[in-house]
Design goal:
This protein is α+β, with helices and mostly antiparallel strands. Helices cover 58% and strands 20% of the residues.
Length: 293
């Protein structure tokens, strides 16, 4: 089997770097959106309902009250940047949201204390425990607005993710039942390759990726997705795709001939000059399947 069709290690490294950059930018955008939403909700709540004896009497007062929203925005970003990895590492999935909200509430409280003390013109060290608890309580009450928003948004997003996942599985099941096309799913949310089954030649494992070789007219093309060959093999179970080697899965309907060379079997596929090795473990099964087609 010729190795010239594979991706080089430098190409895979570049693809990994690009994927990590996109994932990082996606997290940054989500953090900015959620933090900005929290800040806007807090500022709007204070301006509209004017709780805690707030009185909007001038533009100066208006901007100072908006400052509480800015504090919420900044502290929310800092919590996400500083605590996201430790939270994901040490907390279970169902605890992540609660711990994140608790940390944001605590640091928003501290930020509001500092901001409030600056507005009132006296030193931070003059605040006693009761003052701190009062501010924490007020912050918690105001925080109910963004927290409620995030609970609803998180629930809806989770529901959409579950629905999308079920839809993907249903599509995969339909493809398997119909046996006229297959869907290969990678580890990334958007990694999906859908092809007519008769056009698929073979799959080849290459490090943490799988190369999918298929026909586009008379030309052999390939796609690469990040997953394992074993996972793809399960996805195409009950189709004409079968494992013939630890690194290869072939479409048995595309097999033109099985040849023996130096006591080892090799497969010649229709539509390509490449030969695929057959390991001893799978040789009997492949020969039997070939004679059935």
């Amino acid at each position: 089997m010729q190795r010239g069709d594979g991706f080089s290690s430098s190409s895979r490294s570049f693809i990994d770097q690009q994927r990590k950059l996109l994932e990082f930018l996606d997290r940054v955008v989500k953090t900015l959106k959620s933090s900005a939403t929290a800040g806007i909700l807090v500022a709007t709540f204070l301006l509209v309902f004017q709780p805690f004896q707030i009185r909007i009497q001038s533009w100066t007062t208006f901007y100072l009250v908006v400052g509480f929203g800015v504090v919420t925005f900044i502290t929310s970003i800092l919590v996400d940047l500083l605590f996201e990895k430790p939270i994901l590492k040490y907390c279970k999935e169902h605890q992540v949201f609660i711990v994140t909200i608790a940390l944001k509430l605590f640091f928003i409280t501290l930020g509001n204390i500092v901001y409030n003390q600056l507005l009132r013109g006296y030193q931070i060290i003059s605040m006693d425990l009761l003052d701190f608890l009062n501010v924490f309580l007020y912050t918690g009450l105001v925080g109910l607005v963004p927290i409620s928003f995030f609970l609803i948004t998180s629930y809806r997003n989770k529901q959409q993710e579950i629905t999308a996942e079920l839809l993907e599985k249903q599509n995969l099941l339909d493809a398997t039942v119909k046996k006229d096309f297959v869907i290969f799913l990678g580890e990334g949310k958007k990694e999906k390759v859908q092809l007519e089954l008769e056009r698929v030649l073979y799959l080849q494992a290459q490090d943490n990726y799988v190369l999918i070789f298929y026909l586009e007219g008379e030309r052999v093309c390939k796609e690469m997705i990040r997953t394992s060959l074993s996972k793809l093999e399960k996805q195409v179970a009950n189709t004409s795709m079968h494992r013939c080697h630890r690194s290869f899965v072939i479409n048995i309907k595309r097999v033109q001939a099985i040849k023996k060379h130096h006591q080892k079997l090799h497969i010649q596929l229709i539509g390509t000059s490449e030969t695929i090795p057959v390991s001893k473990k799978y040789s009997e099964q492949i020969v039997r399947l070939f004679h059935k087609t």
